[in-house]
């Protein structure tokens, strides 16, 4: 049967629909705020001001966004190859180990600009290797990647706990974390950029990893849409049968895509570990891997969308923290509910309003929706 | 003049900007077989879906038996005595025939009474119309021809006076199709009205009393079948004269390009689908493989093209063996000059979500022409795609358009252009014109013959006997995984049909 709707212009597809989804999420969240007896408009203002109102807020928002860009890109790369990598969390966590080894070994001898590339390589490598095992099992044994990557999250968490309460912990310390890195493994802050615009910053963790994230977003775009490898990944992602027909090795493409995905997940660890805490502590990923799934979905698997979605989630994190502080009735858990609503409407229910928007566009200007070309199966 | 069973007056239906039906007027006389023909996308299915309550018309009037009718759901249609047999059967595979027949028409919470009633009713229908099916057989164990009978029984059980059949013969052997036509004639004699939707003009000529032709959403003509010809109908469908049978000269067969010896292939369940098959294809000839769908043709193509592993046997390409036991890589075979147009263009031959130009390199994306180091050479790819669009008259001519937005015929042209323009020594083609409209069929057939005349070895697998007979220089017939006969192109359809049905099965089917 012919579909009654067709494609939308790009601006509506990538701009209008996410905006509508977001708006609905905020309206529903507003009701939740009303339920606990607070003014939803004031809450919204606090949230937005907390995230973008002051220099410090902006810096924090971008710091969180950095983390989500990496995990979002990681999920997106795998998704373009038809693989649902839920293991971003674990891949990022275990990559902390690679960073720890580099930083603890070199922070006394090398300057940051030499430690940093080594740490990038180490985090990417460890993340990639952690993704390699589920990828291999999927490609060779048909073990479903969703199941294996979830399990590998638990394994990664257990290994890190063992290491951080044992071998990696300084002898005299009570805290389950490595010793603090020295100057040679501390990344420079980027707060001065925001200060250029006249904002004042007390102390905020925004650091050079943000720039690395933007570079990676560009490289992912290049990979997916401009390289042969990306072409093969997309072919496999859309149709494994077509990939087989085209002579693309299933094993090779699954393993390659997952290792790239794992490498991007691993690089996420650079941001909190070297940019902020200057040590590897228990649970430093704290769910960023899962947020990455929402970010990737909301960003429609496109790097630009992912950067924007990551900034949105950064705003929710930072503004949410402010909100919890300003409005005692809204607890930390309430913020999680709001974030959950955004994920629900922007990610899971992404297509809920699409038919209506499409019908609306079709009624305005049929030609703009390319309707006459759609004759998938009529008559 | 007999009374009209159905009258459609000024039916309009749009999907967004697509006007699937415009101002359709149609009168179907009670007790006749009425054919509706048209190309894919002409609006036949939409019209019937409106009649059966899947869609509602934007405007217009439906009259059933002279009275205005409001058909909002299929249940309304059934209540008015309209039954439909879909192209893809709507049966529960692991239910018995009886259970399928009463599904949705159970009269009681407990099934006992419904089943007893259905059993006696089925007996009656069997006697009256020659619709014999074992009521206790499990549907998935029945051949397709019988499954289709179950669909017809379902409709009659619900008291259908008007029966709509959508492309009923697509999955049938010629013998099964003949049997179906006998049933339809019997239905007609009993006073039922039959509406037959098809794109096969010969069927229309063979069985209908009246035929209506649709083109681009409009009803262009209604003719008495006796007073029209296949040529006229084809012209009405396409809007211009078409060659139904391509002209071709004698084949000048040369050296053996593809040789298959004792090939055995199993499907994923481990069932032997290709059973010890041997044949050769020479340069400059078209070898056609005829057979009812599901007799191993798909597996044969997949094995030769390296998509599926063979169990045993050998395949030689240009005298050099293809490694069948290891992972024979389709990419490697392509490099060796074997091009493959797969049966399933939607999932195998194309990535529908890709832009047209991206599909025009599928399988050839390793070719240095399309690359700059590890990067795709986007300009070269698009220029190349534009060339092919011009050469193969692919419409719309926009290489950036998503492939899903092309019609079936144009999608097939995208695949053919890609494979033929690589100048392969051997071309294997599965179902060259499945779901392709009449105008494009002519084009595709001409291209295939041009390939042959350039000295390529062409292997064509098709379930359309007409196609096989008009293209092939030699015809191999496959039945149950084996080649049961080789014939020349002048062989009659009846003889091929017997072979396709495996001869001894023939009596059973009749």
The radius of gyration over CA of chain B amounts to 24 Å
CATH fold assignment of the largest domain in chain A: ABC transporter involved in vitamin B12 uptake, BtuC
Order of helices and strands of chain A: HHHHHHHHHHHHHHHH
Structural class of chain B: alpha/beta
| Biggest beta sheet summary of chain A | none
Number of domains of chain A: 2
Share of residues in helices of chain B: 25-40%
Return the average pLDDT of chain A rounded to an integer: 88
Overall 3D shape of chain A? globular
What CATH architecture of the largest domain in chain B do you see? 3-Layer(aba) Sandwich
Write the layout of secondary structure elements.
The complex is a heterodimer of chains A (379) and B (510).
Chain A: H1 10-35, H2 40-52, H3 55-80, H4 88-106, H5 112-141, H6 145-165, H7 191-196, H8 209-226, H9 228-238, H10 240-245, H11 250-268, H12 270-277, H13 288-298, H14 303-326, H15 332-348, H16 354-364
Helix pairs in contact in A: 1-2, 1-15, 2-3, 2-14, 3-8, 3-11, 3-13, 3-14, 4-5, 4-6, 4-11, 4-13, 5-6, 5-11, 8-9, 8-14, 9-11, 13-14, 13-15, 14-15
Chain B: E1 4-15, E2 18-29, E3 33-38, H1 44-51, E4 59-64, E5 67-69, H2 74-79, E6 82-85, H3 97-102, H4 111-129, H5 144-157, E7 162-166, H6 174-189, E8 193-198, H7 201-207, E9 210-215, E10 218-224, H8 230-238, E11 256-266, E12 272-282, E13 286-290, H9 297-304, E14 312-317, E15 320-322, H10 330-335, E16 338-341, H11 345-349, H12 356-359, E17 371-372, E18 375-376, H13 378-391, H14 408-420, E19 426-430, H15 438-453, E20 457-461, H16 465-471, E21 474-479, E22 482-487, H17 493-500, H18 504-509
Parallel strand pairs in B: 3-8, 3-9, 6-7, 7-8, 13-20, 13-21, 16-19, 19-20
Antiparallel strand pairs in B: 1-2, 1-4, 4-5, 9-10, 11-12, 11-14, 14-15, 17-18, 21-22
Helix pairs in contact in B: 14-15
């Amino acid at each position: 049967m012919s579909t009654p709707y067709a494609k939308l212009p790009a601006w509506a597809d990538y701009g209008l629909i996410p905006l509508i989804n977001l708006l609905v999420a905020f309206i529903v969240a507003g009701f939740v705020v009303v339920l606990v007896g607070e003014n939803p408009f004031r809450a919204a203002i606090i949230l937005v001001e907390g995230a973008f109102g002051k220099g410090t807020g902006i810096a924090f928002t971008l710091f969180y966004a950095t983390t989500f860009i990496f995990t979002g890109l990681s999920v997106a790369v795998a998704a373009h190859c038809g693989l649902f990598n839920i293991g971003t969390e674990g891949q990022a966590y275990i990559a902390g180990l690679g960073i720890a080894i580099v930083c603890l070994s070199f922070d006394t001898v090398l300057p940051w600009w030499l430690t940093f590339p080594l740490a990038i390589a180490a985090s990417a490598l460890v993340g990639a290797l952690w993704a390699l095992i589920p990828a291999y099992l999927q490609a060779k044994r048909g073990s479903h990647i969703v199941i294996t990557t979830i399990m590998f999250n638990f394994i990664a968490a257990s290994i890190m706990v063992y290491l951080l309460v044992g071998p990696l912990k300084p002898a005299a310390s009570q805290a389950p974390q490595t010793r603090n890195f020295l100057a040679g493994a501390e990344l420079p802050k980027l707060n001065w950029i925001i200060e250029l615009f006249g904002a004042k910053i007390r102390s905020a963790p925004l650091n050079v990893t943000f720039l690395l994230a933007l570079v990676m977003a560009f490289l992912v775009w290049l990979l997916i849409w401009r390289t042969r490898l990306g072409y093969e990944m997309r072919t496999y992602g859309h149709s494994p049968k077509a990939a087989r027909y085209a002579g693309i090795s299933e094993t090779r493409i699954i393993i390659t895509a997952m290792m790239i995905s794992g490498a991007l997940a691993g690089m996420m660890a650079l941001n909190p570990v070297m940019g902020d805490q200057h040590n590897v502590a228990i649970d430093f990923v704290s769910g960023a891997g899962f947020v990455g799934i929402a970010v990737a979905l909301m960003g429609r698997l496109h790097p630009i969308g992912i950067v924007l979605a990551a900034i949105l989630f950064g705003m929710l994190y930072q503004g949410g923290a402010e909100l919890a502080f300003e409005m005692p009735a809204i607890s930390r858990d309430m913020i999680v509910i709001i974030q959950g609503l955004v994920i629900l409407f922007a990610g899971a229910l992404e297509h809920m309003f699409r038919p209506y928007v499409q019908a609306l566009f079709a009624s305005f200007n049929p030609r703009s929706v390319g309707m006459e070309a759609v004759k998938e199966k009529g008559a | 003049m007999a009374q009209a069973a159905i009258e459609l007056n000024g039916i309009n239906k749009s999907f967004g900007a697509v006007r699937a039906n415009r101002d359709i007027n149609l009168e179907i006389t009670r007790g006749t077989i009425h054919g509706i023909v048209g190309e894919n996308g002409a609006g036949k299915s939409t019209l019937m879906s409106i009649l059966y309550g899947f869609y509602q018309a934007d405007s217009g009037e439906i009259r059933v038996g002279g009275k205005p009718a409001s058909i909002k759901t299929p249940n309304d249609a059934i209540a008015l005595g309209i039954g439909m047999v879909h192209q893809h059967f709507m049966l529960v595979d692991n239910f018995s025939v009886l259970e399928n027949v009463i599904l949705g028409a159970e009269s009681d919470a407990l099934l006992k009474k419904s089943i007893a009633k259905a059993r006696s009713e089925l007996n009656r229908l069997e006697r009256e119309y020659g619709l014999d099916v074992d009521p206790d057989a499990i549907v998935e164990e029945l051949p397709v021809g019988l499954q289709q009978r179950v669909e017809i029984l379902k409709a009659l059980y619900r008291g259908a006076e008007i029966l709509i059949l959508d492309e009923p013969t697509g999955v049938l052997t010629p013998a099964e199709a003949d049997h179906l036509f006998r049933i339809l004639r019997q239905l007609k004699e009993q006073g039922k009205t039959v509406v037959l939707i098809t794109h096969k003009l010969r069927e229309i000529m063979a069985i209908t009393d009246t035929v209506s032709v649709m083109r681009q959403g409009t009803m262009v003509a209604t003719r008495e079948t006796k007073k029209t010809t296949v040529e006229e109908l084809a012209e009405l469908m396409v809007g211009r004269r078409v060659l139904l049978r391509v002209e071709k000269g004698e084949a000048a067969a040369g050296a053996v390009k593809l040789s298959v010896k004792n090939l055995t292939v199993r499907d994923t369940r481990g069932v032997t689908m290709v059973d010890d098959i041997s044949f050769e294809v020479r340069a400059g000839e078209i070898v056609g493989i005829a057979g009812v769908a599901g007799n191993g043709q798909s597996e044969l193509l997949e094995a030769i093209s390296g998509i599926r592993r063979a169990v045993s046997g050998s395949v030689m390409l240009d005298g050099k063996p293809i490694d069948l036991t290891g992972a024979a890589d389709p990419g490697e075979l392509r490099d060796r000059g074997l091009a493959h147009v797969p049966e399933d263009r939607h999932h195998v031959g194309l990535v529908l979500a890709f832009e047209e130009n991206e599909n025009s390199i599928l399988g050839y994306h390793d070719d240095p022409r399309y690359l700059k180091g590890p990067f795709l050479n986007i300009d070269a790819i698009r220029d190349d795609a534009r060339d092919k669009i011009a050469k193969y008259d692919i419409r719309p001519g926009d290489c950036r358009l998503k492939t899903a937005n092309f019609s079936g015929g144009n999608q097939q042209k995208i695949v053919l252009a890609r494979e033929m323009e690589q100048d392969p020594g051997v071309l294997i083609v599965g179902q060259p014109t499945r779901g392709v409209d009449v105008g494009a069929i002519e084009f595709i057939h001409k291209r295939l013959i041009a390939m042959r005349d350039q000295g390529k070895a062409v292997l064509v697998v098709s379930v359309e006997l007409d196609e096989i007979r008009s293209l092939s220089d030699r015809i191999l017939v496959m039945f149950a995984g084996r080649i049961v006969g080789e014939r020349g192109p002048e062989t009659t359809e009846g003889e091929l049909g017997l072979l396709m049905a495996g001869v001894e099965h023939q009596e059973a089917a009749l």
